[in-house]
Design a protein that fits this description.
With 359 residues, the chain is an alpha/beta fold. The protein has helices at 3-27, 33-38, 41-47, 51-64, 87-98, 114-118, 130-141, 158-167, 203-211, 221-248, 253-258, 262-274, 279-287, 290-311, 315-332, 343-348; strands spanning 78-82, 102-106, 123-126, 149-152, 172-177, 190-197, 215-218. It has a 7-stranded mixed β-sheet with strand order 2-1-3-4-5-6-7, with helices on both faces. Helix 5 (87-98) links the parallel strand 1 (78-82) and strand 2 (102-106). Helix 10 packs across helix 12, helix 10 (221-248) packs across helix 13 and helix 10 (221-248) packs across helix 14. The protein is globular and about 60 Å long. The protein starts with a helix and ends in an 11-residue tail after the last helix.
């Protein structure tokens, strides 16, 4: 049998298995996308298959189960995106336009037309850098009708939500898309939802996100910002630091990948994607709040403390650090994650973080 024949036979087997998989998903309550990914992580690592390949399979199977009529009957709405020519703004403009909404863009040079662009809008979506968000909300609110729904998609939620509630009398909601602008659709993507006022005015938008395969996670702005200190700011700092280190020591990345583990390849891919972004975005995420800066500083002190133990070759102390942390993870996480799945914790989104984050 030739390679071509073997490939054809393998493809036929894969197609049959995918058909079975879709049928099983359709016949029962679907596990979350996170669960479907986490349940096979060890097998992917053993087989040397990138998680991104399996994620594509899982997402594609999920997409076939979304009713084709889910967005067929959407009432077209007038939407203005402030910052709509930025990368995230363009993504939302494209996705909202595809289902028949009339989407306009307001950029910094368009404020002479703000009354025209904002006063008649059903929804105004603020998509600007963190440092400008509150000022833009204050400026835009002057033009809004009491019925206009106002929301932002910034990665911090307390200050923007407070500003929207204070300066706009109408519907208010904070959104945080947990993804970057490079995605092709909302399928399998998380969006954190922070209700503010008159939630029903945003129901169509939330239903639209869900109809496109998005996963909505509802929480307060305070819960969101507290969690993002860990989920976003410290992770950005860790990967930012790793990238800077690799550049400083001039590591031959290509050679390292030829003898790497799946975990190393995945980490390098994440670091590469971080440094393909606009540097302002990465830095703004780390510097967005005083709490983020303080926590990153505390993380750096932890690195330094552990590095001193390594420098002293203090094996016993390092083992003690490991065992203490091992106990923490066994106690706090095993009841939620089987084997590695944060879905339940993120869905409930009721963090109980009692550590002193102001250190």
């Amino acid at each position: 049998m030739t390679n071509s024949d073997q490939l054809k036979k393998t493809d036929q087997s894969l197609i049959a298995l995918l058909s079975d998989r879709i049928s099983l998903l359709a016949a029962s309550e679907q596990p979350s996308l996170d669960e479907q990914l986490a349940n096979v992580a060890p097998f992917l690592a053993q087989a040397g298959i990138p998680e991104s390949v399996w994620a594509s399979v899982v997402n594609s199977c999920h997409a076939t189960l979304i009713p084709k009529s889910a967005t067929n009957h959407i009432t077209p709405r007038q939407i203005t995106i402030i910052g709509g020519r930025g990368r995230m703004g363009r993504l939302f403009k494209e996705q909202l336009s595809l289902v028949g909404n009339n989407v306009s863009v307001l950029e910094h040079e368009d404020w002479d037309y703000a009354d025209q662009l904002l006063s008649q809008a059903d929804l105004v979506l603020v998509s600007v850098p963190i440092e400008y968000t509150v000022d833009v909300i204050k400026r835009a609110a002057k033009y809004l009708a009491p019925t206009t729904a106002l929301c932002d998609i910034t990665s911090v939620k307390i200050q923007p939500t407070q500003a929207m509630l204070e300066h706009h009398s109408g519907p208010v909601m904070g959104l945080h898309p947990m993804f970057g602008p490079n995605i092709k659709s909302f399928l399998g993507q998380k969006v954190v939802v922070c209700p503010g006022r008159n939630d029903e005015s945003f129901q169509w938008l939330l239903e639209f996100l869900k109809s496109k395969g998005g996963e909505l996670i509802v929480c307060t702005p305070e819960e969101h910002d507290q969690m993002m200190v860990i989920i976003q700011a410290t992770q950005h700092f860790c990967r930012f630091s790793l990238g800077v280190f690799l550049a400083q020591v001039k590591v031959d990345i290509e050679q390292s990948l030829t003898m790497s583990t799946p975990n190393y390849r995945q980490e390098i891919d994440i670091v590469k994607r971080l440094f393909s972004q606009n540097p302002n975005l990465c830095v703004d995420i780390m510097l967005a709040t005083e709490e983020r800066c303080n926590t990153i500083s505390f993380l750096a002190k932890t690195y330094s403390r552990l590095a001193r133990l390594v420098a002293r070759k203090d094996r016993d102390a390092l083992i003690q650090e490991f065992e203490n942390t091992q106990s923490f993870f066994e106690e706090k996480i095993n009841s939620f994650i089987q084997p590695l799945n944060t879905t339940a914790l993120q869905r409930d989104f009721k963090p109980q973080m009692h550590t002193n984050m102001s250190i």
